[in-house]
User: What shape does this take?
Amino acid sequence: MTQDQKDRILAVLRAIPMPDGGADAVSRGMVSEIFVASGKAFFSLSVPASDAERFEGFRREAERRVGELDGIEAAMVALTAERKGGGMAARPPAAPRAAPAAPHPHHHPRPRPGTPPAASGPGPVVPRAAKPGIPGIARIVAVASGKGGVGKSTTAVNLALGLQSLGLKIGLLDADIYGPSVPRLLNLKGRPETVGGRTMVPLQAYGLKAMSMGFLVEEETPMIWRGPMVMSALTQMLREVEWGELDILVVDMPPGTGDAQLTMAQQVPLAGAVIVSTPQDLALIDARKGLAMFRKVEVPVLGIVENMSYFLAPDTGKRYDIFGHGGARAEAERLGVPFLGEVPIEMAIRESSDSGHPVMASDPDGPHAAVYREIARRTLASIEGVAAAAPQAPTIVFE
Ligand code: ADP
Assistant: This one.
């Protein structure tokens, strides 16, 4: 990157009005190191944690204006939480190290995924409701995140394809009823056929059976769902679809940890949940909410994926931790949940995902597919660990 490029980017950023009406982002020291490679600019903006939503428009505007500069094809800008007092101020006190639940002489001494003591947060544990399974589907795994835009859907799709590449039969249910993204991510259009008047046949892409609210309503339709309607739409997509025999149904959950998510997590017979987070403190705090939510409904957390974790310069292969990478791994260790892997921030992942050709399918031998395949392997191991540790499951010990 030339000094001139950097100066032009800074000049653009200085000119964007701040949502809080204050001095510009550059003179306030909010702009990270700027990295430009192959015409793509990457940087982050550190904003007060409480103001993240207000700065989202600013972030988009920065991406747009920097992307329009001569010699820059595109920009990727991320918001990071401003660190106050070492960035730990907002964190709850550290949980004690997890001890294995119900130690078993033949069991691997790893903490049982998703059940560290003292980390389930305040509030009562909602007893696991009797959730009837779905005939033909061996396991249902949720992919969740504390907030939107962290790459949850991208991870869900590539995880599903990664699991499939390990030889499993996989379905993908887009439970993000408000903002379905599976039709776009898998480049699927059209309506599912119905058989016998009610049962729908899932659409198929890259070998995955997929179902999404996006297949059933026009993309532009505003959807104001009330709680019960969300539930009945979800129930229908789960139970009134000809899924056939599946080893795993991956569910792309709606972002957030509100009531709708809680209800959903309670209604769906989940084998476990994968939490997607970005390295930023902000997202990590939200990831913790996700963990707490699943614990409340006694759904095991299979592990955390750190998305947009680091950036590999395409020309030199040098690694840049521009977004403060490593937070999710440390957090997973602290909470005693498995760390499933880290996915770099990559133009190829964004482009392929947004054009409906996920990297796992479009470049199965490439480096990003390898990352997702490893995440799929670890997820599978975690599912098996949870099943083995579940008290209600009969355990067979081979001597
Ligand atoms: P969410 O489901 O959390 O809202 P998405 O999966 O829709 O997030 O991703 C948000 C945006 O970020 C999309 O444009 C997607 O292509 C992009 N994205 C996701 N993961 C990555 C990554 N590792 N590198 C670059 N872009 C990514």
Remarks:
- The pocket of adenosine-5'-diphosphate is lined by residues 145, 148-154, 181, 255, 307-308, 343, 345-346, 349-350, 353-354 (CB under 6 Å).
- Residues 83-130, 393-399 have pLDDT under 50 and may be disordered.
- The radius of gyration is 22 Å.
- The chain has two domains: 1-88, 129-389.
